[in-house]
Amino acid sequence: MREKILQVKTFGSFSMIYDGKSLFGRKVGETQFASMMQMLIHERKKGVSRDRLEQELFGEREVENVHHALQSVIYNAKKRLEKAGLPDVNYIEIRNGVVYWNDEIKVQEDATEFDQIYNRIKHEKNPDKKIKDLEKIFEIYTGEFLVKRQSVIWVAIEARRYEDMFREYVEEAARLYREKQNYTQLEHLGVYASNIEPFSDWEALTMEAMVALGRYEEATDLYADTAERYFEERGLKPSKRLLDSMNQLGNQVMHSYDVLDNIQHNLEEKGVPQRAYLCSYPTFRGIYHHLVRMLERSGQSIYLMLCTIVDSKGRPMKEGAMLEAVFEIDAFFDRLGYPFPGTESHYFIKHEKTQRIKMARKLSDEEMLKNNGEKGTFIIRVEQRQHSSWQGRVTWVEEGKTENFRSALELLKMIDGALGGMDIKEDAEEENQERAG
Predict the structure, then answer these.
(1) What does the alpha-carbon distance between residue 181 and residue 170 come to, in Å, rounded to a whole number?
(2) What are the pLDDT digits (tens) for 196-255?
(3) Which H or E run includes 108?
(4) Tens digits of residue pLDDT in 302-337
(5) In the Cβ-directed half-sphere of 42, how many Cα atoms lie within 13 Å?
(6) Would you say 54 and 97 are in contact if contact means Cβ atoms under 8 Å apart?
(7) Whether the predicted pLDDT of 93 surpasses 50
(8) Do residues 396 and 151 make contact, with C-beta atoms less than 8 angstroms apart?
(9) Between 175 and 282, the higher pLDDT residue
(10) How much of the chain is in helix, strand and coil states, percent to nearest 5?
(11) How far is residue 253's CA from residue 246's CA, in Å, rounded to a whole number?
């Protein structure tokens, strides 16, 4: 008789299936049951402290008796698990202030399997066995860890850990495929990694494979499409890695007689040019130099206009505490050496090179969970530092919303915009109080 196992999927999308049936039906909601099961299953070996679980489930809400409320959630979970067909046992146990999942119910969690294979690969010496295990990891990792719950601190921390492991082993798999000259698999790896983790330059692997396989036009088209998408969606210029792939392509391909037509076609803007022309600072300098030369010959003048960005109350952003925080955090990134800056910072006064430091945990997950802002809490994930700025994602914890940002300025505007409604409300209350006085 086949053993029944509770199958839990945390990568890409969340699901719990027992004996072929989903515990959530067609739709997985962000319920207390789901939140509790995610934490207990993922940390089932060491358990979860009762205080931490209560904080996860009830947060800052006013609950008369939080211990009783937790017992109620556990009781309802038991009824739900029984209804799903699980054996009638005490699924969730509390021992010495720690909450555990009962190991009588066998669990197969994709994240746990990922960790096990990751540790096995680290000690594997046989390249063929290592490749098989790497390919198993890529089958398991179908997206970010609990992607819809990354506004929760412990989830965000684990998601980042799995991302780092994923990147490490994509590079390792690419190295092994190169050694075996298996460029077809290298191409598949590049396509897979680009879909799983967009805007991370994995297209360079696909380009490398295409060049090695002699598919130069496809590689050229991929570079053009990638460069355009990176700029339009994230404001990113092609990275050194992508440029190196393009240089490799240029060194190997023989240009045909119609290359000038192709260059002309690629230079032209798609559609009818509209609105102001947005470009990077180096491009702007080039345009400015060109215009100065043209206008000198015609005797015309050229002027620059400086616009100052202000917040929702009309205050210049440079006077705000948020901008000072950006400077402090950017200096921390320099000391940490991550994310690596795409350009070297320029100063009027010479700066000494920053000494690198090692990362060390200062707060536990429980302590971080308690540090919510008075007006709002934002989890900022800086993934790249190009154009002397930041690119990444920001999550507004209270609203559970996540957006991409293409620069530190855009990030500040997003945070200011999120809090702007509160500022307006406060201003109205102050005005009403003044009138009443």
Answers:
(1) 16
(2) 998 889 999 999 999 889 888 888 888 888 888 888 887 777 778 887 777 776 666 544
(3) strand 107-109
(4) 666 666 655 555 655 544 556 667 777 787 777 777
(5) 20
(6) no
(7) yes
(8) yes
(9) 175
(10) 55, 10, 35
(11) 10
385, exposed or middle or buried, with CB in 10 Å at 0-12, 13-18, 19+?
A: buried
User: Pairing state of beta strands 21-22 and 15-18?
Assistant: antiparallel
The Cα 10–Cα 216 span in angstroms is: 38
DSSP 379: E
Which helix (H) or strand (E) covers residue 429, if one does?
helix 408-436
Q: State how far the Cα of 110 lies from the Cα of 8, in Å rounded to an integer.
A: 7
Contact 40, 48 (CB under 8 A): yes
Q: DSSP for 295-317?
A: HHHHT----------B-TTS-BG
CA distances for 126 relative to 49, 137, 239, angstroms: 41, 17, 33
Task: Please count the CA atoms within 13 angstroms of the CA of 341 that sit on its side-chain side.
Answer: 16
Task: Compute the Cα dihedral for 38, 42, 47, 53 and give only its sign.
Answer: negative
Q: How many CA atoms lie within 13 A of 132 on its CB side?
A: 6
Instruction: List the one residue out of 244, 187, 252, 200 whose CA is nearest residue 226.
Output: 200
Cis peptide leading into residue 341 (ω within 30°):
no
Type of residue found at 220 = T
Both tokens assigned to 13: 């999308």
Cα(5)–Cα(319) distance, integer angstroms: 58
Q: Which tokens sit at 392?
A: 């990444």
| Structure-token match 């990568």, residue found | 11
Number of helices followed by number of strands (H, E) in the chain = 15, 10
Using an 8 Å Cβ cutoff, are 26 and 127 in contact?
no
Are the CB atoms for 17 and 7 separated by under 8 Å?
yes
Distance between CA atoms of 247 and 239, rounded to whole angstroms? 12
Per DSSP, what are the bridge partners of residue 393? 381, 404
| φ and ψ at residue 108, rounded to 5 degrees | -120, 100
Of the pLDDT bands very low, low, confident and very high (cuts 50, 70, 90), residue 124 is very high
Taking alpha carbons only, the member of 194, 84, 185 closest to residue 135 is: 185
Does the pTM exceed 0.85? no
| Residues 194-212 as b or e (16 or more Cβ within 10 Å = b) | bebbebbbbbbbbbbbbbb
d(CA 256, CA 216): 12
- For strands 98-101 and 92-95, give the pairing: antiparallel
CB 56 within 8 A of CB 35: yes
- Cβ atoms within 10 Å of 220's Cβ, excluding its own: 19
